[in-house]
Design a protein that fits this description.
By secondary structure, this protein is of the alpha/beta class. Helix content is 34%, strand content 24%. The protein has a seven-stranded mixed sheet with strand order 3-2-1-4-5-6-7, with helices on one face. A two-stranded antiparallel sheet has the order 8-9. α1 packs across α6 and α5 packs across α6.
Length: 214
């Protein structure tokens, strides 16, 4: 069974889709903890309501590396296999990324590399740009912001009557689908990282012996 740890700063809405997929046996996984850097984040309450261990780690007075290593220790204590960032508003330190290389996934509300950034700021930028298509991106986290190897993307139409909130709602629906699919592929060992890019193996395809991870 895949052991998942979630880092969240706001509401962790996308976690509901993962829980539903677990209940429906689409995923053989367990969310073992949710960690937040915000004491009053609704994500903590959402976790508690679903019987998930909710942990607040206070960043006050700690440098980024010290803080990240404290979180890493909590994840390692719980033998977490995969770390998910769902609305997590901190840039992870290189030390944390190295410790969990290719085991940290972030869900981002645009089609990267277009429109990096945070939450409603992203949707605002999309609307102001006039593009007709946006979407979401699931990617592995590396040392740069919103720049790691892309795993999956899903397009969402931008409607003429959209505002930031309406666009966000539809993008979140896509995020939920992509997250569940990405977790499934990860658990099945079908995501290969080669030279900074991912390759998704077909069902039944075996990993090449010459696979070089970076």
């Amino acid at each position: 069974m895949l052991r998942i740890g979630i880092l969240a700063s706001t509401r962790a809405t996308d976690m509901e889709a993962i829980l539903e997929a677990i209940r429906n046996k689409r995923l053989n996984a367990e969310i073992v903890c949710l960690i937040s850097n915000k004491k009053n984040a609704y994500a903590l309450e959402r976790a508690r309501r679903n019987g998930i261990e909710a942990i607040f780690v206070d960043p006050k007075g700690k440098d980024p590396v010290e803080y990240d290593m404290e979180i890493a220790l909590e994840l390692e204590r719980r033998k977490v296999d995969l770390v998910l960032l769902i609305g997590y508003n901190r840039l992870l330190s290189p030390q944390f990324v190295k410790k969990f290389r290719n085991r940290i996934m972030n869900i981002h509300p645009s089609l990267l590399p277009a429109f990096p950034g945070w939450d409603l700021n992203v949707h605002r930028a999309v609307l102001e740009s006039g593009v007709k298509i946006t979407g979401c991106t699931l990617h592995f986290v590396d040392e740069k912001m919103d720049a790691g190897p892309i795993i999956l993307q899903k397009a969402v139409e931008v409607r003429e009557d959209d505002d930031e909130e309406s666009l966000k709602r539809r993008v979140q629906e896509a995020e939920s689908e992509v997250l569940v699919e990405g977790i499934r592929l990860f658990q099945e060992g079908r995501i290969i990282v080669e030279q900074g890019k991912t390759r998704i193996l077909r069902e039944g395809e075996t990993k090449p012996l010459s696979n070089h991870r970076d």
